[in-house]
Structure formats: C-alpha cells, structure tokens
Amino acid sequence: MKILVTGTTGYIAKRLALQLLEEGHHLVCCVRDLSRIPDEIEDHTNASFIKVDFLKPEDIELPKDIDAAYYLIHSMATSSNNFESLEKECAVNFKNLVEKTNCNQVLYLSGIVNDDSLSKHLQSRLEVEKTLKSDSYGLTVFRAGIIVGSGSASFEIIRDIVEKLPFMITPRWLNTKTQPLGVRDVLTYLSKALGKKELYNKHYDIFGPEILTYKEMLLQFAEVRELKRYIVTLPVLTPKLSSYWLYFVTSTSFQLASALVDSMKVEVIGKQSDINTIIDIEPMSYKTAVELAFQKIQQNSVISSWKDAVSSGVFKDQLSKHIELPQYGCFKDVRSRDIEDEEFTLNKIWSIGGRNGWYSYNNLWKLRGYMDKVFGGVGLRRGRTHDSYLEPGDPLDFWRVLFADKNEKRLLLFAEMKLPGEAWLEFKIVKDKLYQRAVFRPKGLLGRLYWYTVLPFHAFVFNGMINALVKKV
Questions:
Q1: Residue % of the chain over a pLDDT of 90
Q2: Res. 156: pLDDT tops 90
Q3: Which of 115, 133, 260, 468 has its CA 20 to 30 A from that of 59?
Q4: pTM, whole model, 2 decimals?
Q5: pLDDT per residue as tens digits for the range 135-153
Q6: At residue 314, does pLDDT exceed 50?
Q7: Range from 241-255, 392-406, 423-437 carrying the lowest mean pLDDT
Q8: Phi first, then psi: what are they for 111, rounded to 5°?
C-alpha cells in the first residue's frame, strides 16, 4: 500500500514508519524541514519525502494515489496559548487535502477521553477526532493513555523521578488511576488496523492489562531497576506547585510539566471492546514494557524520543535556515587547534554532552544547567538520545542540533537555555585544524552585560574543551 505518514520526526511516527517499511509498504513521509529526515529511513527505496506544513495549506500538494494516511500530529509540549485552535486548524487543512486524494482510510492516535472533566490537551484531541471525520474516507481512531517505551515522555519522567529520589513527597495526583500501554503494542494496533474495513469510522480505547495509579507505576519501575523507593503523597500541592515539582525533578520543560499535571489529574481508564480480537494482540504488562525499554537503552538503540521535538519557540520556520552563523552584531569566542587524529576528534565531537559530559569543567556546565532550570529553561537533564550519534533536530543538553554532518566535519548547536540573546556553538575541521566558535547575539543592554559577565569563564572552559577534543589521552 502507498501510505501518507504525518509527523514523521515525532516519537510514534518515526517508529511506525520503520515498521511499515519492514512490512513492504511505500511511504510518503511529511516533514516540515527536509533537513530533519530521520537517517534510519532517508535512503530507503520505499520512502519518499515531501515538505509539508499543515498550517500553510496553500503550499501543499499531496500525491493523489495514496491508499491510507496516518495523522500523528500533536502539540503536547507547545508553549502556544492557542494550541487548541492551531491543532484544529491543522486537522481541518489535513482533511481538506486528503479528501482530494484516493485515500480510503485515515488512522489517528488520540487519547482516552472517558472522564467527565478532560484536560485541555485531551479535549483538543477529541476535537481533532471530530474534525477528521469525513464522507470521503474511513476514519479509524485509537485512544491511548500513558505510552511506555524508551524515549517516551512518561517513561523518561518516571525514570528521572525513580532514579534520583529514594524518598519522595509527591502531589496527590499520584493516586490517579491509569492503564499504561507499551509503545510496541501501540505500533501493532496502528499497523495491523491498516486496510481493515471493519474498523472504518470507529474509535477504540487501547490500554494495557493493568489498572495502576501513578504511584504504583513509580514503585513497579523501581522494582524493575532493583531500587527501594518510599513515596508519601500530600493533598496540599496545587497544580502550579505540582508543575514546578515535576519540572525541577525531571528533564521536562515547564510547559510540558504543566500539560502533564493537567492531564494526570484525569482518570484514564479504557472502555472494553473487541479490538484485541480483531487485531489479534495481547498487550504486555507495564513491567514488561519497562524491561523492554531498558533493553533498547542498554543497546544504545533508542529510535525516537519526546525530546526530539523542537520546543524552544525560537524556530518558527525550518532549522536549515539557521545553519549559517550570524556575522554582525555578535560577540565571538573563536579558538583553533591542530589535530593529531581526525577520526578521534570527530568521534569526540559527536559524543559531546549527555553522559559523556563536556570534557572540561563539567561542574561549571552543570551549574549553568541548574541556573537555567531556576529561570525556567530546559537545563542539562534533557541529555541526548544517543551517546555517539547526532542528526539535525536532536536535543543535546540545553542545546539543539542545527547541523551535523561527519562528511563535512561540522557540528552546529543552538542554545535553548534561557538567555538575553541567542547563542551558537560550532565545531568544524578544516585542513587538519579544528575550529571552535561560540557566537552570541545579545538582546539589549542585558545581553551585553551577560556576555562580559561570563567572558572570564570562557578562557578555561572553552580552552579546556577544545584541548580535550584534539588530544588523545
């Protein structure tokens, strides 16, 4: 089948695309930025890519001969105040465009919406579901709750909490009940529903075999990790305080923390149906999903992560438009060193940050991360998806990868930390010499004061970093 996949760089869509290709389908993958095509599928003979922004329908022309389409666009971590209207507009434009094709089925992954008081995000997903209904194609909707898998937001947040806090004083929403579902099962539902006419114009709740509270999920996660954890819940933490608690303890952004707290107050219990019989699936337990996720992590083979979403709010267009360093109105710190071993230096550059650290004065980098958290930034906890692999759009501590090409021997990062200006960090090898450039474009007087305040630290932090990159120890 010829299948249109939206949200190709997203957590679910990236994994689903790989599975559909393995099953022999031809994919037309929609990406907003052609420089962010996932490497795992970029060169696949059955995958083609089109530049698409569903908020700009006048620029879009979809292939007529598609058989089915997956709508996998969400804005959980957006900082926009009008995300509901943006999501609806996006869905309307998608529907209008798909109706002009030969598409027979649209599949949408939504959230379980059985509670009387829905969060804004769950309400928005329900509205999108209603918007996507059409007389031109059959709509199949799967409504999931907490998705558990390597790189998923819920998994990484629970991991942060469990592995960092032996004793926890937590908000009362930890007693909310939910039915977590393994990401592998989610992909099975989505892929096996393809082309099944009995699923047209129907919606199904999909969920794991257990009803657990968030507290029970934390404790079972700790059991898998062989950690002893103690949890006390307090009834006095307001939603805002709960958001701050989640934000400071975990690697999530404050916007996502607020959205999660808003959703976690709602009980997510699925309605029984015959979907498991139709799909022929027996969903795995929560513990099994956690164990499988850690297998992927230990093999350094995490395919996608919630952190891959470009959430800084700085880039309203394509990352590829920002891959040239600005020249005017900027402060610069430029250093260069002769290279002893090019392959060694490239590998160290591509492994920078995350668990590997920044090779010099790591405590100062950590301090800068803590300061960023205090001021509402992403901090260092975000880490990186892979220990030694980078591609455009990847998160890297409080940086975002703009450009990463080993053949061109260049890595360019953009700062997503809270700053009175904009900052870039570039590593580039030219004729056996490494050039390291830190560029800061200040915003007003505060930006200039910031640069001169941190300037004394550059002498040893940046100097130590470039020395470590070129010298084999």
A1: 42
A2: no
A3: 133
A4: 0.72
A5: 999 999 999 988 998 877 7
A6: no
A7: 241-255
A8: -115, 155
> At a CB cut-off of 8 Å and minimum separation 6, what does 82 contact?
none
Strands of the 331-338 sheet, one edge to the other? 331-338, 433-442, 421-430, 410-415, 399-405, 395-396
**What is the tens place of the pLDDT at every residue in 187-224?**
999 999 999 999 999 999 999 999 999 899 999 999 99
Q: Of 320 and 385, which is predicted with more confidence? A: 385
HSE-up of residue 469 (Cα within 13 Å, Cβ side): 30
Residue 54 φ then ψ, to 5°: -70, 0
**Dist. CA 229–CA 158, nearest whole Å:** 12
Work out the pLDDT band at 253, boundaries 50, 70, 90.
low
Query: Could you tell me if 219 and 151 are in contact, meaning their C-beta atoms sit under 8 angstroms apart?
Result: no
Q: What is the dihedral of CA 15, 17, 18, 20, to 10 degrees?
A: 120
Q: How many CA atoms lie within 13 A of 74 on its CB side?
A: 22
